[in-house]
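Exercise 7b. Backbone tokens:
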């Protein structure tokens, strides 16, 4: 069995950037992911526009060319695929990591393929760059698991002339509500706080605020969702209880890293913030030989790390390993 110098768990921009830096340093990296290449970006809304300019998404010194000022989902997917091809990265996609055995210098990563076959890979060092988009923050209410409730926004077209409820008040919720309204949906935004989130994209904020003022997007603030039924969302606020008709519910309440997987590796997480025990210079965790990169470093504070800064974590780790 071949031994890899470094095994990256997660084939998003951060995992790919780490593998590229390893390859450029003369190491042999392997990248493993339970989904497709850049699985999170693949599951973004079809027409999503990034908050950032193209050069801030670049990895491996390869230019990202974008038709407009800000890149869109399809351009990013194509770019990261070409980056993986350009550097000839070894990838094992659609393999879920079950566990990591061994110790620094001699780890065994055990995976399971989609067909249920167990595979094993030997690696001297491990980098965990698993992101956070796979695990939605659940509300823990009755009806949240009904088939018409989704924690991911896709496209608006099937909801023309239908009632849709969007739960949340940050960027995803604001963008979804606007997209639905512009495609002929009767949309209601429900948010537990009294104001929209501070991190909403600067070009989205005036748009959503004006649509709410004009009554084109109905909005209920300081409102809690109590229950979801097959055709209604039951909410409560200072004015009492209200039943909102809903053909579809988008519960865009945020996401979090896979804390249980990280803890299964022996990495200590802060009980409050869920941030991992980490050497800030080398990004090595309390478990020798296991490094963390990307948004998993932020714990619950997922808005602290983006592709723009997470893409440098790989270089930081490889520089530390080179000594």
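Sequence design result:
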């Amino acid at each position: 069995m071949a031994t890899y110098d470094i095994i990256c768990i997660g084939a998003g921009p951060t995992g790919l950037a780490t593998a590229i830096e390893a390859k450029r340093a003369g190491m042999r990296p392997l990248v493993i992911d339970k989904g497709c290449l850049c699985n999170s970006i693949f599951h973004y809304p079809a027409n999503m526009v990034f908050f950032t300019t193209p050069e801030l998404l670049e990895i491996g010194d390869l230019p990202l060319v974008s038709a407009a000022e800000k890149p869109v989902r399809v351009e990013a997917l194509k770019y990261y695929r070409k980056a993986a091809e350009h550097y000839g990265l070894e990838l094992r996609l659609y393999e879920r990591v079950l566990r990591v055995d061994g110790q620094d210098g001699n780890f065994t990563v055990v995976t399971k393929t989609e067909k249920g076959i167990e595979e094993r890979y030997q690696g001297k060092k491990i980098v965990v760059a698993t992101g956070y988009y796979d695990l939605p923050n659940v509300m823990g209410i009755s009806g949240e698991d009904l088939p018409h409730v989704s924690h991911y926004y896709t496209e608006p077209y099937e909801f023309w002339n239908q009632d849709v409820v969007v739960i949340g008040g940050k960027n995803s919720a604001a963008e979804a509500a606007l997209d639905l309204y512009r495609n002929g949906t009767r949309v209601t935004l429900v948010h537990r706080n009294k104001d929209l989130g501070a991190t909403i994209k600067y070009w989205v904020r005036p748009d959503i605020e004006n649509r709410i003022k004009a009554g084109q997007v109905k909005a209920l603030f300081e409102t809690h969702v109590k229950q979801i039924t097959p055709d209604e969302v039951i909410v409560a606020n200072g004015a009492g209880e209200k039943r909102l008709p809903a053909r579809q519910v988008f519960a865009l309440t945020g996401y979090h890293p896979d804390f249980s997987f990280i803890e299964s590796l022996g990495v200590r997480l802060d009980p409050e913030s869920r941030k991992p025990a980490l050497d800030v210079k080398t990004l090595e965790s309390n478990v020798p030989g296991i490094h963390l990169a990307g948004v998993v470093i932020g714990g619950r504070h997922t808005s602290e790390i983006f592709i723009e800064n997470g893409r440098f974590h790989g270089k930081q780790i490889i520089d530390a390993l080179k000594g």
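Instructor comment: The CA atoms of residues 20 and 170 lie 33 Å apart. Residues 149-251 form a domain with the FAD/NAD(P)-binding domain fold (CATH 3.50.50.60).
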